[in-house]
Structure formats: C-alpha cells, structure tokens
Amino acid sequence: TNRRENKMMRALHRLSRPLLRTTTRASSAASSAAVPAAASAGRLVLVSRKAMSSSAEVSEAQRNVVVHGGLKDADRIFTNLYGDGSPWIDGAIKRGDWHRTKDLIGMGRDWIIEEIKASGLRGRGGAGFPTGLKWSFMPKVSDGRPQYLVVNADESEPGTCKDREIMRKDPHKLIEGCLVAGFAMGAHAAYIYIRGEFTYEAECLERAVAEAYKKGMLGKNAAGSGWDMDVYVHRGAGAYICGEETGLIESLEGKPGKPRLKPPFPANVGLYGCPSTVNNVETIAVAPTILRRGASWFSSFGRKGNHGTKLFCISGHINNPITVEEEMSIPMKDLIERHAGGVRGGWDNLLAVIPGGSSVPNLTKEVCDTVLMDFDALREVTSGLGTAGLFVFDKSADMIKGIQRLSYFYKHESCGQCTPCREGTTWLWKVMKRMELGDAKVEEIDMLEELTRQIEGHTICALGDAAAWPVQGLIRNFRPQMEERIAQYKLSQQQQQQKQGTHADQAYN
Amino acid sequence: GASGIFCFFPFPDTTHMFRTVGRRLSGLGPKHTKWTRHKDLANFKYSQWDFSADSYTKVKAILARYPEHKKQSAILPLLHVVQEQTGGWIPAPAARKVAEACECPPRRVYECMTFYAMYHPYPQGKYHLLVCRTTPCMIRGCDSILKTLCDALGVVEGETTKDGMFTIGTMECLGACVNAPMLVCVDYSNPPSYKWDYFEDLTPETTLKMLESLQNGVYPTPGPQGSRRLSEPAGGRTTLQATPPGPTETGLDDRLKEASTAGARRREKAQEEWRKLSLY
C-alpha cells in the first residue's frame, strides 16, 4: 500500500541523510567506475525501490554518480609537458601563449582577480589557499613601497617534480603568468626563485626571459599593455626550507632562509619589507589560460571547492613513473592504473601511498581503493593533496625505513631557528632509526606520537608539521608492523645472547 | 700594529675549545679541520682573491637585478659565480670579496655559505657525483647505486678519490622523483666552465657505464639513462598523443565586452551618485 511505501521511503531517507547528493556530468564510465564508499568520499546516492521501477529515475540516479578523470588533450593546459615542441617563444606562440595578453590586461586588475576567484583556482604549491583571494590581499593603492610578485620555483618537496617540467619545456606560460599576475597585484617586478640544483631549468628560464624582453613581452609597456613588468631569475643554493613563503623571501634578501613569523603576512611586509605575494609556478602558469578560456571552463573540472586540472607526479613502485596533467577529484586508483601502468604486481600488491609529497600522512590500501585526488577528499581521510606528488609503496617496501629516511630529510632541512623543530626533528630521526631495526620498546611508539604532537603546531613555519605528519601516519596505519619489528629484534637479541652464552660461561671458557 | 711596543699575552684563546667540548666529545657535527677553521688558512688575512674578467661581467649583470640599496640579495648568485671560477669551492678570501661586492659585512656571506648545501668551504674532486637519497629514490634503489659507485672507486660516501678525480656524496631530494633513482654529476674539471647535470633512471649497470665514460674523459649524455624521454611513461604515452592546438580562447570577446560594459555601468552609477551629492 501507499502507506507502507511511504514508511519505507522515510526509513531510506533517514539512512541517506548523512550522505549528500552530488550532481555531475554523466560519463560512459559511470557504470564501470567504483562508486566511492561513503566513509572516504562521503557522497553516495541511495536509490529507493520505488524509484527503481521507473527508468527515468534510474538514469537520474546514474547521472548523479560522481566521476572525474579522463581529461581530454584539448582541455590540457600544459601541452608541451613531454617536450614535443620547442620550449622557446616560437613554439610557445604556436601553442597559444602570449595570445591577446594585451586585452586581458586591458580589462583591469579587478576583472582578472574576479575571474581567478570564480575559477576556483587553489594554490598548487601545497597549501591550497584560494589564489584569487590571495591576490586580492595586495594593496590596491601603493603607500610608496613597490609591490613584488615572487614565484616559488624552489621545488624541493620529495615526490614533486612538476615545476621543472613547466620551466624547461613551457617557460613562457610562467613568464606570461608573471606579467598577468603581476599586473593583477600591482607589481612591476617579479622574482622567480628557482632552486640551485635546477641549473638546466634556470638556464632555460633565463633564455626564455631574454627572448620575452627581446620580443617586447617584458620590460617597458610589456606586450603592448601599458604596464611595465620586469622578471628576474634568482637561483637558490640547496635548502628545502627556502620553499617556505617567508623562508624564500629571506633567502631572496640574501640571508639564510630562516622563515619569519606570520603575521605580518607577506602581503603587508614581504620582500624588502614591501607588499609581496609568493605563488607556486603552476598556479601562476595556469592563470593566463584560465583568463583566456574562461573561469567556467576551469571550474567545470573537479568537485566544488577543488576545481581545475593538476599536474600529478606518480613515482615509486609502479610500472610507469610519470608526470601527467589530470582533472582534480580523479579517483586515485583510476589515476594510477590509467596513467602509471598500475602498481607493480597488481593493485592488490599495494601497501601504502603518500598522496601529496612527503609532508602528508600515508594512506593504506583500503582508503586508496576509493579516495579521490583533491584537497577536501584527502583531508577527510587525514591526509592532504599537498603538491600531488604521489609515492606508491608495494608490499615489498619497508614502510618504517621509508619514513625514517623522510625523518632524516626533515632533520637535515630544518633551519634550526625554533627549538621544537631543531631538536624535535633530530629526536624523531634518532627514534625512527631505532624503530627501523626494532631496537626500541613498545611504549616508545606512544612516546613518538606524543613527540610529534609536541612539534606539530608549535613551530614558526610548517616544516615542524611536515616532519610530524608522516610519523603520525606511520603509527596510525602501521603500528602492528612496528610492534612486530620490535618483537623480532628482541627475539634476535635473545637468540644471539643464548648463542654467545653469559659472561660467566665465557669466563670459564 | 703599534711599532716599538712589545705586547705579549701568554694565554691562548680557549673559548672555542670549551664551547665545542660537547660537539667534539659526541662525535657529531663537522669537525674543525684546517679547511673549515678559517683563521688557520694560510691565506686568511693576507691573500687577495679576485673575480676574473669573465666573472666580473656576470657579477655586474647579477647586481643589476636587485634594487640599489639591497645588494645583499646578490650573495647567493655571487657565491655560485665564485664556485664556478675556483672549480668547486669557496675560499674565505673569495667570501670576503663577495661581501665587498655586495656592500655587506663578511659575516653575512659566511652565514649563507654555511647554511646552504650547495656551497663547499673546501676543495672537491673534479667530478662531484651526488646521489639523491630521499624516500622516492630510496624505494627505487638508490642505495645500490651509491654502493656501486663507492665500490667501484674504493671510497666511502663523502670522500674524494686519491687522484682527486671523483667525490661521492649524497643529497636530499633533487626534484626528479619520477625519474628515480638518479644522481647529479657536477663537472668542475674545466673551471670556469661548469656543468651540473642530472643522470636519471639509473641502474647499477648504467651507473658503471657512466663512471667509465667519465674516467675516459668522455662526458656522458645527461637525462634518463634508460630509453624514455623526460617524464613520459616508459610503457608508452597515455596523454598528449597528438599535436597540441593553437591559441584557444572561449568567448573571450563576449566576456571582455560584458566586463567593460559592467565597468562602464559601474562608472555611470558612481558618477550619478557624485552628481547627486554635488547638487546638495
């Protein structure tokens, strides 16, 4: 009867209330793609039995299933990623860079910032701060101090190698982005801080900048827009901490790259004490394309709040390590299997994935089966997208050794300014080194976790958090393996002692 | 100093010795060798190190990039120029020359020299092979690459060979994780020309081949040492399989017109408001 059906509908509705409905485009792969589990993605549509009888409602439900991925080449921004064409200005112009830059700038700062805000672009350097909002913090009227755009090309995050592809194969995207973004911020000078180890990439960038000057795209009346823009390339000298916003500014000023306290934020007091904004290479490089092709085009990719395309660097125990540009919110399994040739030995051989460069906690296979690659979905599973540099561990990998090596990385790269980081990263590494052997007590695992909580959030910059999170992820997901290692070590020590005998026996022998 | 007055203070300066007791006893930290203890260098106070004529053109170009009163920014690039000129290290007088060029006290240059990993205060071998050792490279086998190099040359990590040709070292993440494992070969054999090249996708066999090539005086081709190009997948491309399209814009003219009319409307509205105010 109707009443029974209504009761059933209400019960089903009550079950489905915590799970939100989403709407996206239909895809032919919808039926074959794994429907994300409620726990990880939080988006599922329950189809009632009554609705099942009606085909129109079934297709409506199918249309509501979330699927992202399968970005077409026509929608890709970095079309010279593998270096097919010339990276220099002739190739760049053929690929569509420097096209109507004058008109884009002619529309004014407000229009550019509104378009970038509407596109939903979030910072691609790891923090994911909305870019339009960041650009709008720059003062509209100068108080006498010049304003600077600083481009963060210090790509030192382990697992990340996307910016070097942009700089050596498509540098003009970055340079045009500097002009457009610099105009939007009221900056007449942009400094591109490139890490010292990227010598070849720095040469490419300097050559591209020289070409741009020669062709009138930079300098006075850049690209005929009426705005003067100068771009300078500054080489760093080997420090991960100089990838931090204020550490980069300190390094640019010629000091050791020790980060500053925030506030004051760089938009108030930045490079040389002047208002400046620090943005990642990829964020700046995609800006002109967004303006040309429209904010709505860019925001048609990815879920709400995580729009656009991203360069993913997939490395580790996969068949084909690759840097690829894909849509945001693509399922991780889809990304690895479609582009990276799958995990070595099959998907079931997967042990863990670190999804966003070394600074985020790892994810176990159960989560990786269904999680989407975007900022919000990964945050829901207590990880993060970061720089989208995935490293994949298969069952042959020693997770504890991997995290120990990362702890050494953070110890080495700590600038030494604040005590929790300087002492904490060293301490973490020493304990992790013993954990790798198993030379520890089981209580020390909890001590280690407490130590990470003491470092996290108590430091001047985020390197403390970045050092703490991988260890927290290890303890959260791999505690049984750590305890087993400790037990094995204890056993082997006991066996060795038995073989050697006690001191008393040795004395008689 | 003062002439005609004999000054003799009999007690040595033991401050440094006391302050470093902990570090020396713990076995950690860089030991103070003759190369790192600046006041022991024979040429500390009295030698004059200068940039060469070629270096001076580079120095001028570098200094022109920064504001007039902010020459300290040039310390990092100038230290790179020094390293290129000397062939791999930074002598103390060179650091003082950089300080002179940047119009800052020498202390600032010493701070930068010791903070950043790429600057060496003592001479290196002609070829400096630095293997990346961070986790993405580690899980792809960088330890075996390091072992191969050390065994082939008979040195341990951090050492220079007896003939001064090769120094084996390690670096933290070098930013080529997709092409792991990899190393950097820095070629200081012919200063001031200097090469810093990545050799990627290494196996123990390709590493030995590269080493032999360097020993024979033939510089190997940098980049992935396997069969693939750059960061494209070894198993064949999944994206970017066709020539990319030319300039693409979507509705740019309409959006520009709409924005400009919106701007014109806003301006009109503002002018109307202003007129109303001025009537009063």
Summarize, please.
The complex is a heterodimer of chains A (509) and B (280). Chain A is an alpha/beta fold and 509 residues long. Chain A is built from 22 helices and eleven strands.
Folded structure, characterized:
The complex is a heterodimer of chains A (509) and B (280). By secondary structure, chain A is α/β, with parallel strands linked by helices. Chain A is 46% helix and 11% strand. Chain A contains 22 helices and 11 strands. In chain A, the strands form 3 sheets. Chain A has a 5-stranded mixed beta sheet with strand order 6-5-11-8-9. Chain A has a 4-stranded parallel beta sheet with strand order 3-2-1-4, sandwiched between helices. Chain A has a two-stranded antiparallel sheet with strand order 7-10. Chain A starts with a helix and ends with a helix. Chain B has 280 residues and is an alpha/beta fold. Chain B has 10 helices and 5 strands. In chain B, strands 2-1-3-4-5 form a 5-stranded mixed beta sheet, covered by helices on one side. In chain B, a hairpin with a 7-residue loop joins strand 3 (183-187) and strand 4. The N and C termini of chain B lie far apart (82 Å). The interface between A and B is large, with 88 and 73 residues.
